[in-house]
Amino acid sequence: MNEGWIKEKIGLLKDNRRVDDVALRVTTEDQNLTRFAENRIIQNVSKKINDVYITAFNDKARGVARTQDTKDESLLRTLKRAEEIALNSPADPEFIEPLDEREVKGIQRYFGRTKDITPGEKAEEINRIKKEAKSRRMEIAGQYSNGEYFVGYANSRGHIAFHCYTNVSFSLTAMLDDSSGYASETDENIDKVDPGRVADVAFSKAILGKDPVGLKAGEYVVILEPQAVADFIPFLAWSMDRRASDEGYVYFSGRLNKKIASPKINLYSDPYCIDNPSEPFVSENGLPLEKVYWIENGILKNLHTSRYWANKKNLKPIGFPTNVILGGGKKSTAEIIKESDDALLVTRLWYIRFVNRKDLMLTGMTRDGLYRVKNGKIVTSFKNMRFNDSPIRLLDSVLELGLPKRIEGHALIPPIVAQGFKLASETLF
Question: Domain 3-204 in CATH: superfamily?
Fold first, then answer.
């Protein structure tokens, strides 16, 4: 798939439509995934998927149909199904016409070597790490994926947006009898992902976690590693919706342009960030994305706003972010640990769920490493704990921000030192 293909196909649909307007959205995925567990490769699967959505717009009604067949005859059949839905549907009270033509700047995120790495090459790397794990009497599990991806949007009014990129991700959990360690790296460029480096971090974490002891429930000063902070952030982003806020359903209701976090906090998205690029438009409608500050110096500045709600309230539409960036400082996690007198170090969080959406209270568990830092050194490991806390309370209790690290290919997040992190009870593992 490329720009030429989507231009050609929207032309085909435009010439054969029976409705006012038509839009084409396409996503493609050409990926190879290798999974390993119990010190052996357990799965290697390749998939190549095309998803094509055609939307017909007619007199304030819409119809959407989907196909995975990209041949012209299939696209025309799908157009016909979408038109039949639109022509036989009542007017949509929240109908919004497709966008007129506008510029969407491209982003270079394509690296051929990332796409071309073979299952055999990945297996060699995994087997090398497996031998190291066995020599340490550890068991490893994880995955190694790479692929090429395309997302494009076009409509009969001349608006076209497209984005092609590659991605590689390696994650590993190292396990001993009573402890585990985790690390991962993700990037568009295979040269920036080092499975050996990931394994070394996971091995070290597992060793540090040996012989864990119980920890009393309570409120603690914590050093949250970038992964742990990134585990929190999506729950914040999902709730930052202008309509839900205006209608009183979420924490942010009535808080625009008010302080909600520490003045140290600057949370924003920017698809053109050189260190954390992402899709530069909303795939569902082609709305261009730009740099947006959500929280600036602790003040809530923006909420993502649909085109319908923006039109209704005379606002500027703001698309849901395709990446998230939290401004930080210059100290690495290791440097923060070295300067810490007494704190808990949290590797990551998992199984997170909402307790109360109105105050953004979440519950979940620590995973793959919970430690006590005393006088600049890790001195004790603990059994994992359940937490009950809010990302907003956390961001309002920040003592220090460290050097940002890219997490899972979409978040650029620093380690955070915060006070009052609420650990509720010990887990069973």
Answer: PmbA/TldD superfamily (3.30.2290.10)
